[in-house]
Amino acid sequence: MFRFICRRLLMFPVVLLVVYGGAVLLVMAAPGEGLESGEKDLPPEVLAEKRKAYNFDQPPLERYFWTWPKRLVWDHDLPAFQYEDWTVVEIMRSALPVSLQLGVLALGLAVVIGVLVGVVSAARPGSLLDHLSVGLCLVGVSLPTFVVGAALLMVFALWLRAVPVGGWGRPMQALLPAITLALPYAAYIARLTRSGMLDALGEDYIRTARAKGLSEFRVLLDHALRNALLPVLSYLGPTAAAVFTGSFVVEKIFTIPGMGTHVVESINNRDQTLILATVMVYSVFLATFNLAVDVLYGFVDPRIRVGAGSR
């Protein structure tokens, strides 16, 4: 297992470099430099100063793979194209904690609701409760977040006036966005848990556990759920990265100043420095959570731990 983790850690910078290289190629493929976005007829001398300030006087390889990463990570003085008074690091420091707070709450709700619904549904297959949970999961997966968010806003914020309409900073302001962001993932986790539980409950070791006189509660949680969670763990890697970096739609609906807002604005404004920075933040989260999922796999399933140690 230790060797497996070391190999994955050695691959970590390689994956990030490949992703960053792909993002750079896409940015370079777009016509123009993006320095005049939102402005018209800049004087040549002003445009020349801007190009120098953003290192466009350097060769592309040097600019994208040395100067900008150095200014971003080491010097912390890489400015955004459309926010010249703000550096990219300052934008990230203000937006990323907001998306992380929303993501932690949403992911926690998704896991708790999804696993609970999946276990209850699998414990009584074919019952009314099972059919109801399957139907709700189908609705949760099918409905877009902008529909769910708008409906929750209308009912709980406008009609009942139980929560604020939008904004960020108070616990009640995080409730509706977290539920909106969590519901699609909770529905999918519930389907994965139910499917895994039904497969596990048909295995011989479950019949053996019941024959030993174990209670149904212990059979479900101690034996069946452990193996049923393996597909859920696989799903949580990319899901956690997507949730933690924020949902563009959810943050827009509830006027939350998180990463999603800056990602949309950077693309619309062709803000190359902010685009590359947000892509790398997402990539770091994705690679980190996938590594964490692989490690958790080894603790949940001993067969994986033995197989990793034998290679």
Short description:
This protein has 13 helices and no strands. The chain has helices at residues 2-29, 44-53, 60-75, 88-123, 128-142, 145-159, 171-201, 204-211, 216-244, 248-253, 259-268, 272-300, 302-310.
Give your account of this protein's structure.
This protein has 311 residues and is mainly alpha-helical. It has two domains: 2-75, no CATH class; 95-300, MetI-like fold. It contains 13 helices and no strands. The chain has helices spanning 2-29, 44-53, 60-75, 88-123, 128-142, 145-159, 171-201, 204-211, 216-244, 248-253, 259-268, 272-300, 302-310.
Shape: globular
Biggest sheet layout: none
What CATH first level of the largest domain would be assigned? Mainly Alpha
Give the C-alpha Rg.
Answer: 24 Å
Features:
single chain, globular, 0% strand, 311 residues
Q: Layout of helices and strands, plus pairs?
A:
Blueprint: H1 2-29, H2 44-53, H3 60-75, H4 88-123, H5 128-142, H6 145-159, H7 171-201, H8 204-211, H9 216-244, H10 248-253, H11 259-268, H12 272-300, H13 302-310
Helix pairs in contact: 1-12, 4-5, 4-7, 4-9, 5-7, 6-7, 7-9, 8-9, 9-12, 11-12, 12-13
